[in-house]
Amino acid sequence: MTDHTQLAAVFERFADQQAAGLSPLYATLSRTVARTPELLDLAAETKQGQPAPNMLLGAVHHILRRGVQHPLAPYFSGHESLAEGQAAELLTDFCRRHLATIRRILATRSVQTNEVNRCAVLLPTFAALQQRLDDGRRIRIVDVGASAGLALLWDRYTYDYGGRPLALPESDPGTVLTCEIKSGTPPLSLDVTRFVRPVGIEPSPVDVTDPEATRWLVSLTWPEQTNRMRTLNSALSVAARTPPTILAGTAHDHLADVVEETPEDQHLVFVFSWSIYQIFGSPGGRERLVDTLAELSMRRPLHEISIGHFGQPIPRVIMASHDGGVSHSDVVAHCDVYGTWLDWLATPPTAPSA
What we know:
Blueprint: H1 5-19, H2 24-34, H3 37-43, H4 52-64, H5 73-76, H6 84-97, H7 99-108, H8 119-132, E1 138-144, E2 157-161, E3 164-166, E4 172-183, E5 199-202, H9 211-219, H10 226-241, E6 246-248, H11 251-261, E7 266-273, H12 276-280, H13 285-296, E8 302-308, E9 316-323, E10 326-335, E11 341-344
Parallel strand pairs: 1-5, 1-7, 2-4, 4-11, 5-6, 7-8
Antiparallel strand pairs: 2-3, 8-9, 9-10, 10-11
Helix pairs in contact: 1-2, 2-6, 4-7, 4-9
């Protein structure tokens, strides 16, 4: 067996820092993989740059969601709690039985989660941006790292902010995103007609009309998160009716071109929702992004909305402007990874319209 000490540590961290408290099943299975050389050998076949715990456990979940019969299945349905003493035997047996399929998934698939509930954090940020850009000009959103592009359809969902419902002109009543406002008063009123021609950028766009591709997206949610699965399936149905526009390629391929082809009478806003580290690396990804946008802003003013941890324990929402090579940013909110709560810090200071 190959020495996979570092990979074992990755699975231990995943169990302790990500799955703990959210998915007892994945915490147990991750620790099991970390201690089982045969499973580590399999996990090591994950494509370079992809998180092995998400990929291996997502592959198992994906196969089980097809209705495969195995003693491991009841634990993925949430009906039973898996004891650590059973986990190694069951997971190893399952992986042996479905080795070829798992290897194919690890070699070809990527983690492209599309947490649609984050739109409940983006909406008030868009409203705040619209207040700042009060010249009436249209606004173009570019979602960088768009996956299936569900965030581009933010105006198609219905929202519930702690019992305060919000419906937009084209909201789907069956796709409801909930968000608790812990503090502050986020702006929730905006003119959606000002937002035009949204576009995403993604190296391997997910085809929302391809059932197999969308099933994989759902399989990347954790088994206990049944509400997330329902919301994701509902949003994917909305997207299948009106597929978003996504440019295939990296941010480096398309950022400059998008800047050039967007009309001057439109404000241009780049959105990065937990995608900066994938594009600009970590640590230091945020700084490299700022340098990139500052350089591009020598051609025209740019705006940015970024959500992520940025080295902090609590995720934050950053609103930034880049003009003539000069960048300015404000932290306007704190939120959680899934967009289920929002702590609005302040109304961003008014800036001159671009």
